[in-house]
Amino acid sequence: MDNHIKIIDLFAGPGGLGEGFSGYADSAGNHPFKIALSIEKEASAHKTLQLRAFYRQFPTGEAPQEYYEYLEGKREKDPADELYKFPHLREQAQAAKKEARQLTLGEDNAKIENSIKNALGDNPGNWLLIGGPPCQAYSLVGRARNAGIINYDAKKDHRNFLYREYLNIIARFKPAVFVMENVKGILSAKVGGIQIFDKIREDLHHPGKAIGLTKEDKNEYEIFSLVLNSEDDLNGRVEPGPKDFIIRAENYGVPQARHRVILLGVRSDIISSIHPGILSQATSPTVHDIISDLPRLRSGLSKGADSLEGWADAIHAQVATAINAVRRSGLNDVANIMEEADKEIGSESLGRGINWAKKESNGITDNVPSDLAAWYSDPKGWKGVCNHETRGHIPGDLLRYIFCASFAKTSNEERLTPKASDFPAALAPNHKNWSSGKFADRFRVQASFRHATTVTSHISKDGHYFIHYDPTQCRSLTVREAARIQTFPDNYFFVGNRTQQYTQVGNAVPPFLAKQIANIVFQTLAKVK
């Protein structure tokens, strides 16, 4: 008999939230959660999701050699072309295909609901629904973009109501618990003059009533904060305020300032006097602690022939002028670091990396807490580094990256990276709005001595917000470095081209944070009689 707590994962992306739950182990070392079904519409993210589902078909530490050969580039690029076709792996491949489905909520609802019925079976027990409806319409950036669209009407934008697809599944299938994630901007978003978050929270209290399944006026779900002590604050029936649902990931051991709204819902008929716990605070590691063990790489040249010599020559040809301009602006300490970096550039045989694991990690630093270090590590001891290749940049941006990374070496907690006003005119990009103040931090270094800023899907467009702290590498972060900051295990492979990989990582929930939420859910369900 399967005693796992079943999970249905909607809007799954590449699987960050699901990875945290499926990877969670209780005090006895058992993995109580099992993903029964995950739904994602985007093709490359779905392929990543299916590959991870395939990996999870095997007991911990028993993934087949063929899986690692795929990560090392010894198999076809698409796992469906060869990996899933081995006769002795066909059963696990079919199970992964059944688990990870490429479907769209709002369009394929009949197929999705039928898949959920089959996945849950006749006696699903106290199962769990997780997921985060797409957030573009709620994010501050998305709302600013929409404001520039002529005749834009938020009430007609279906993205503002994708949460209702999530709500529909809650109402129809009645999970014991749900975990719903979204961007912080949802707290201030309005549709038709109504605060959308207040509407969502009310609907989640009464999901059946909200979608017209029932007119019963009762709270079908209690909604809890994962950071507010509910036992103290709800005894008086005082509900958490909107801001009490914000989780600041850097306060819980994640090396990134990622602020997201996460709601924990527990079905009213099982909650009684149970009060879910809250996340335990922990110091986040620094960017250096998290990525310094990965192979050193150089960036490339996006225009013209690219080589180590050509890359170094492109920098050497213009860096002296840039250094002089930095000195004239009064930043002598930054100029000195740039000079030292210039001497090193080209002296080390740096490559641009590769999507496949041809090299190994030197081993994550001892400064990383043991539980997080173990989370990154492969249980079989595999130390390959995949999805670790650099972008190409124009020479002008190479100089800006050297300047920014050198600036960060002289900065402190109050001033981590240069603003537009810190750039000498010789290094200013040719952007119309550069001096307007609207893009003052267009170039942002991920400082070595603290946690990273939020890894977003914008990392897929350019690397300007995600500059590596080492001026001698002169580049933006790779997909693997971004994945480390997002706390994905090193054997988690992102399928697709590099742009798609960056998007997947940027949109994901940090799995290590999800693992901690899984502990709260498990402890809550353990109290249910």
Structural class: alpha/beta
The stretches of 5 or more residues where confidence is low (pLDDT under 50) are: 139-144, 152-159
Query: How many structural units, i.e. domains?
Result: 2
Overall geometry comes to: globular
- Strand elements, count: 14
Q: What is the name of the CATH class of the largest domain?
A: Alpha Beta
Major sheet size, sense and barrel closure: 8 strands, mixed
Mean pLDDT, to the nearest integer, reads: 90
**Estimated share of beta-strand residues:** 5-15%
Which radius of gyration do the C-alpha atoms yield? Answer: 24 Å
Please work out how many helical segments DSSP would assign: 19
Approximate helicity band? 25-40%
Any idea of the CATH topology of the largest domain? Rossmann fold
CATH-derived architecture of the largest domain: 3-Layer(aba) Sandwich
- Terminal Cα span: 19 Å
CATH homologous superfamily classification of the largest domain: Vaccinia Virus protein VP39
